[in-house]
Design goal:
nine-stranded antiparallel sheet; four-stranded antiparallel sheet; 4 helices; 24 strands
């Protein structure tokens, strides 16, 4: 035959249009199947390599067909060269002389395959040479491959094969921020909570509190002053640094916050984080403390935050009080991924909660 280029190929039967395939449920079984999707084509891909004289003088010029997924070789079980033997797969070094194949050029891009055992068993009588074909001329998926005598001209395409290049698997597009690994790294930015303002300029919080002093008109100047004071007290801004990382199999985020007020000191808290895929864009969700727990008022033993573990804490509680935590919540959505990347360069959230408009804006560093 003419020169055949070694390489990795899908091998398609000319008559059936189906492909040499290794079955998942039976590792040594070879049948014909429809072409699989690109990412599964390793079951149908065959490394075709020609034997060199240095490797074996006896088999030089013949070919081996190694399945890409299994690493095993197309093989004829018996040395007899008998007809109707179903081919199978064997590992390297097993049944070596029955893993070599002759490729015959049948023109128009078609090739025949004959096992070396058949060639040697029929050296004197060409008509007994066996060809790789499909049992019972089956056109169905699952048809068994076997070696058989040459067929009539009408049926010869069942013993012809085309060698095609495997398709390159297309990488599935990954959603921006769609996996936990997307967030690994550090983000910096701000957390801002400001009062929601009504059309008349008063805050939603102020209007609600002021109304307790005088009805729907927000209680006059005294009520409005009290309400607006509470609204301003509720407003707060933090500088935020969030470092997402893996601790073994645990997903963690270390968050350092610094409140915008005189004398404030940075505070760091570590917690796990979740991934909310139900929003318009994936969001990393977590809750962190912005300061140490402190105690005010009457202690409540049923409070889950009430915990006494040292004598100093007992002395602190002698003045009576309950544990208070300052906690802020994050549900920051992934945005601004680079083309081809699933790693967000920005995490952002805007929400309204208890009369406050909260905006969190973090950028990857």
């Amino acid at each position: 035959m003419g020169s055949f280029t070694e390489g990795t190929y899908l091998i398609k039967n000319e008559a059936t249009g189906l492909y040499l395939t290794v079955q998942d449920h039976a590792q040594d079984t070879v049948t014909q199947q429809r072409k699989f999707a690109a990412k599964f084509q390793d079951q149908q891909s065959w490394v075709v390599k020609q034997v060199t004289p240095e490797e074996s003088e006896r088999f030089a010029g013949l070919y081996t067909l190694q399945n890409l997924k299994r690493g095993t070789y197309l093989h004829v079980p018996s040395k007899s060269g008998a007809e109707a033997q179903a081919v199978d797969l064997v590992g390297a070094g097993q049944g070596v002389d029955r893993t070599y194949w002759e490729l015959t050029d049948e023109e128009n891009g078609r090739y025949g395959l004959r096992n070396d055992t058949s060639l040697r068993a029929s050296e004197e009588t060409v008509r007994y040479r066996m060809w790789l074909g499909i049992r019972n001329l089956s056109r169905e998926e699952g048809g068994v491959l076997e070696q058989c005598l040459p067929l009539s001209s009408d049926d010869r395409p069942f013993q012809f094969w085309r060698f095609e290049q495997p398709e390159v698997p297309r990488e599935e597009p990954r959603v921006c921020g769609g996996s936990f690994e997307s967030y690994i790294g550090t983000y910096k930015g701000t957390y801002k909570a400001v009062p929601v303002r009504l059309p008349d300029g008063t805050s939603e919080i102020g209007r609600g509190i002021g109304s307790m002093f005088g009805g729907a008109d927000a209680g006059g100047s005294f009520g409005r002053a009290i309400g607006e004071g509470v609204a301003q007290f509720a407003a707060e801004t933090y500088d935020v640094t969030a470092r997402f990382y893996l601790d073994g199999n645990d997903r963690k985020v270390e968050v350092t916050t610094l409140k915008h007020k005189p004398g404030a000191k940075p505070f760091t808290d570590v917690c796990g984080f979740g991934l909310n895929l139900s929003k318009s864009a994936p969001a990393a969700e977590f809750h962190v403390k912005t300061a140490e727990t402190y105690v005010v008022g009457e202690p409540d033993p049923m409070d889950p935050n009430f915990d006494v573990t040292s004598e100093s804490q007992v002395r602190d509680l002698d003045r009576k009080g309950r544990a208070v935590d300052s906690v802020i919540s994050f549900s920051v959505q992934a945005t601004d991924c680079s083309v081809g990347s699933h790693q967000p360069r920005r995490l952002h959230e805007t929400r309204t909660e208890k009369g406050l408009k909260i905006e969190i804006d973090l950028h990857r560093v």
